[in-house]
Design a protein that fits this description.
The complex is a heterodimer of chains A (about 575) and B (about 70).
Chain A: H1 6-13, H2 16-43, H3 45-56, E1 57-62, E2 69-70, E3 76-88, H4 110-120, H5 124-131, E4 140-146, H6 148-156, E5 162-171, H7 179-182, H8 194-198, H9 200-203, E6 208-214, E7 220-230, E8 238-239, H10 244-260, E9 265-272, E10 278-284, H11 303-306, H12 316-325, E11 334-336, E12 340-342, E13 345-347, E14 355-357, H13 358-363, H14 367-375, H15 379-388, H16 415-422, H17 431-442, E15 446-447, E16 462-463, H18 467-478, E17 498-508, E18 511-524, E19 531-538, H19 551-565
Parallel strand pairs in A: 2-8
Antiparallel strand pairs in A: 1-6, 2-3, 3-4, 3-5, 6-7, 9-10, 9-19, 11-14, 12-13, 15-16, 17-18, 18-19
Helix pairs in contact in A: 4-5, 4-6, 10-19, 12-18, 14-16
Chain B: H1 2-40, H2 43-53
The chains are: A alpha+beta (about 575), B mainly alpha (about 70).
Chain lengths: ~575, ~70
C-alpha cells in the first residue's frame, strides 16, 4: 500500500536544502538588521537625535527686558511693558479658496479667521492673505505688540501654524512732556533718539534663549520649558537728574505761553544751582512718543540743546562780572549812555541817555554802558571769561546733535565786535549753555558742568569768579525784576529773584530779520540761589515780544511753582 | 539611591519651573501696575480733578503764615 522506502521518502519530504537556504536568508536578514541598527544607534545617533529634536524641540529667543528710565525721585518716565506678537507660518497650513485644507488645518475655518481679524483689529483680507500665501515665506507677523489679553483670545482659537512671541513695548507715561529728552525706541526695542539712543547699551539687556517642545501643530507647549540655554539678561535702569514735577510745570507754562503769543517755538531749562543737574528741559513744539505716526522730524528736536542763537542782553551781567573780577571797573563807576562810535559804527541805546552806574546799566539794559565795560577789558581776558563759562564749547551732555555754539577767537575781534559781544551779538549758544553760564552767578562764582543723570556733587565745577563778585552782580540784577526794571513780571512773591531779560533780533541769512527772540535767565532765591531757569521763546507774534513781556512771566510761574514744590523757604517776607 | 536622587531632582526642577513662571507673571503684573499708577497720577489729570471735582485752589499769598521753628 504504502511505500515507506527511505529513498522515496527522502525524495518526497526532505526539504533540508530549502530549509537551509531559508535559514541562511533569515540569518542574513537578521545580520543586516543588526548591522543597520548598530549603525543607527552608534554611528548615526547624533544626526538622528538632532533630526528628531528639530521636529518637536526648538530654541526660542527670550526678549530681554529694557531698563526703566526714572526721574530723580524714582518716578518712571519710560517703562517697558510686556506685549505679544502674533506670527504665522503660511507654509504650515495653506488654505486655498475652494480647496480642502490639510488634516491638521481642520480648525482653520474662514469663520475663525474672521474672528482673528476682529480681535486683532486688522482687515480680514490681511488675515486670509497671511494664510493663503503662495510665497516661500515661513514667517510673517500678523500683528506686533498687542495687549497680552488680546493674544490670549487668539490663543484660545487654537489655530494651526500660528505662534506667539513675548515682546516688550516702551511706554512713556508722561508723553509729550518728556518726549524730547527721552527720545524713543523703534519696533525692535532699539533706541532711536534722545536718552534712549545715548544710553541704549546701558538700558538694553541681552536676549536669552530657551528650549521648548512643540506639538504636532508647531505650537509651543506652554508652561513647560525643557531647559533654559541662556537666561535673558535684563537691561539696567537709568536714573535721571530730571524732576518730573518740574518738568511738567515748565512744559505746561511754556506751552501755554507759546500758544498765547503764537510763537514758533520755545525752550525752558531748569538747573539746580549747586550741582548743575538739569531738573527740567522742555521744548515746544513737542510730540507724543507713544503714537508717532505722521510726525514731522523737526518736532523731535530737543531745541534747548540743539538750537543756537545770539543771546542778546542776557550776557550783560556776565560782562559786568568779568570786568569787576579783573578790577577793570569798580562797582560804583559811572557811565554816560550817550551813543558812541566804535571802529566807525554806532552803538546806541533804546532809551534816553543819562549818566548811570553799573547797576543801572544792567537794570535799564544799556548797550552803550555794557560796551564801555567790555572795551575796558583786554580782548584776551574777556574771551577767556566767556570761554570759561562754556561759550563755544559743548556742554557735553552727550546728546545727539548737541550744539556747542560759536565764540569767535579774540585775535580776530575788532573793537566793534568786542563791544557787540557785551550785549550778546556775534556769539551764539543754546538755551542750556546760557543757563549753565548763569550758574557762575548763582553758585557764588562756580560754573557747573551740566548733567542729565542724577549726581550728588559736581566734580567738574570750575571757579571763574570770586564769591564777592558773584554776590555783587547778583544783587545788581535783582533790580531788573523790581517795579521799575525791565522784567518786573519775572518776580516771584515772597522770594528775591535775580535775572536778566533779552530781546534779540533773530539772525537770518545775510543779516537780521523782523522776528525776535524773547529771553529771560534768572535765579532764586537771590540770597542763596537754588535754581537757575532759562526761558527762550522764538518769534512771539501776538501780545509783545520783549523778554520782559513774553519770557519773564513764564519764568515767574515756573520759578514760583518750582520753589514751592521743592519746599525752598522764602527769603523775602516782610515781618 | 540613584533612582531616588533622580526622582528628587525632577521634583525640584518642576518646583523651580513653577516659581519661575510665578516670578514672570508677577513681574508682568508689577509693570502693569506701575504703568497704571503713572497714568493715573498724570499731572494733567490730577490737576483737573483737583481743580474741578474737588474745588481745590491755589492759596493766596496773604493767607499764608510762615512759622519759624
Amino acid at each position: 500500500m504504502f511505500n515507506f522506502s527511505k529513498g522515496a521518502k527522502k525524495s518526497r519530504y526532505d526539504f533540508s536544502g530549502r530549509r537551509k537556504s531559508l535559514l541562511a536568508f533569515m540569518y542574513m536578514a537578521m545580520l543586516i538588521l543588526a548591522v543597520r541598527a548598530t549603525y543607527l544607534q552608534i554611528f548615526d545617533k547624533q544626526f538622528l537625535q538632532g533630526q528628531a529634536r528639530s521636529r518637536h524641540v526648538s530654541n526660542v529667543k527670550i526678549a530681554a527686558y529694557r531698563g526703566i528710565i526714572k526721574d530723580r525721585n524714582g518716578k518712571p518716565l519710560a517703562v517697558s511693558a510686556p506685549v505679544e506678537s502674533v506670527w504665522v507660518n503660511p507654509q504650515f497650513c495653506r488654505v486655498k479658496a475652494g480647496e480642502k485644507p490639510k488634516r491638521l488645518c481642520d480648525e482653520l475655518s474662514l469663520e475663525k479667521l474672521q474672528q482673528v481679524a476682529t480681535i486683532l483689529e486688522i482687515p480680514f483680507e490681511k488675515v486670509t492673505k497671511a494664510f493663503d500665501t503662495t510665497s516661500r515665506r515661513k514667517f510673517l507677523y500678523l500683528k506686533r505688540r498687542i495687549n497680552p489679553d488680546l493674544a490670549k483670545k487668539v490663543k484660545a482659537l487654537r489655530l494651526a501654524g500660528v505662534g506667539f512671541r513675548r515682546d516688550f513695548k516702551r511706554f512713556y507715561p508722561r508723553g509729550e512732556v518728556t518726549s524730547h529728552l527721552l527720545g524713543f525706541t523703534n519696533i525692535d526695542d532699539k533706541g532711536q533718539e534722545g536718552l534712549e539712543l545715548i544710553y541704549d547699551e546701558h538700558l538694553q539687556g541681552v536676549a536669552g534663549k530657551k528650549r521648548v517642545i512643540r506639538d504636532g501643530r508647531r505650537r509651543a507647549i506652554e508652561d513647560y520649558d525643557v531647559e533654559s540655554i541662556k537666561e535673558a539678561e535684563a537691561g539696567k535702569d537709568l536714573q535721571l537728574s530730571i524732576d518730573e514735577r518740574l518738568q511738567y510745570l515748565a512744559y505746561r507754562e511754556l506751552k501755554a505761553a507759546v500758544l498765547k503769543h503764537e510763537a514758533k517755538s520755545g525752550s525752558v531749562v531748569i538747573l539746580e544751582a549747586e550741582t548743575g543737574d538739569i531738573l527740567a528741559m522742555v521744548n515746544q513744539p513737542s510730540f507724543n512718543p507713544n503714537t508717532r505716526k505722521g510726525m514731522q522730524i523737526s518736532r523731535y528736536r530737543n531745541r534747548a540743546l540743539t538750537d543756537v542763537y545770539e543771546p542778546g542782553s542776557t550776557l550783560k551781567p556776565l560782562v559786568v562780572a568779568a570786568a569787576l573780577e579783573g578790577h577793570y571797573i569798580t562797582e560804583h563807576q559811572k557811565f554816560n549812555s550817550a551813543s558812541i562810535k566804535v571802529s566807525g559804527r554806532w552803538v546806541k541805546d533804546g532809551h534816553r541817555s543819562s549818566i548811570m552806574d553799573v547797576q543801572t546799566v544792567l537794570k535799564k539794559s544799556s548797550n552803550v554802558g555794557a560796551s564801555k565795560i567790555a572795551l575796558s577789558m583786554p580782548a584776551e581776558y574777556f574771551w577767556n571769561f566767556y570761554y570759561s563759562v562754556g561759550f563755544g564749547t559743548s556742554p557735553a551732555v552727550g546728546f545727539p546733535g548737541e550744539a556747542s555754539g560759536f565764540l569767535p577767537e579774540y585775535t580776530s575781534w575788532s573793537k566793534f565786535e568786542q563791544a557787540t559781544l557785551s550785549f550778546g551779538y556775534h556769539v551764539s549758544m543754546s538755551t542750556l549753555q546760557l543757563a549753565k553760564a548763569y550758574t557762575a552767578l548763582a553758585d557764588d562764582g562756580l560754573v557747573h558742568s551740566v548733567s542729565l543723570l542724577k549726581r550728588e556733587k559736581d566734580e567738574y565745577a570750575d571757579r571763574v569768579l570770586s564769591k564777592e563778585t558773584a554776590v555783587t552782580v547778583r544783587t545788581m540784577i535783582e533790580s531788573v525784576v523790581q517795579r521799575d526794571g525791565t522784567a518786573y513780571r519775572a518776580s516771584v512773591k515772597g522770594y528775591r529773584v535775580a535775572g536778566k531779560t533779552g530781546t534779540v533780533k533773530k539772525a537770518v541769512a545775510g543779516g537780521y530779520g523782523s522776528d525776535y527772540l524773547s529771553l529771560f535767565v534768572g535765579m532764586a532765591p537771590a540770597s542763596d540761589p537754588k535754581l537757575v531757569i532759562a526761558v527762550m521763546v522764538d518769534s512771539p507774534s501776538v501780545g509783545g515780544f520783549y523778554g520782559g513781556v513774553v519770557a519773564a512771566p513764564i519764568f515767574s510761574k515756573v520759578m514760583g511753582g518750582a520753589l514751592r514744590l521743592l519746599k525752598i523757604p522764602p527769603d523775602d517776607i516782610k515781618e | 539611591m540613584v533612582i531616588y536622587a533622580k526622582y528628587n531632582s525632577r521634583l525640584i526642577f518642576i518646583e523651580i519651573q513653577k516659581a519661575r513662571h510665578e516670578l514672570g507673571s508677577l513681574e508682568v503684573e508689577w509693570e502693569r501696575l506701575m504703568l497704571e499708577e503713572s497714568m493715573l497720577s498724570e499731572h494733567n489729570r490730577v490737576e483737573q480733578i483737583g481743580r474741578s471735582d474737588m474745588g481745590l485752589i491755589n492759596v493766596k499769598r496773604k493767607d499764608i503764615r510762615y512759622i519759624k521753628l
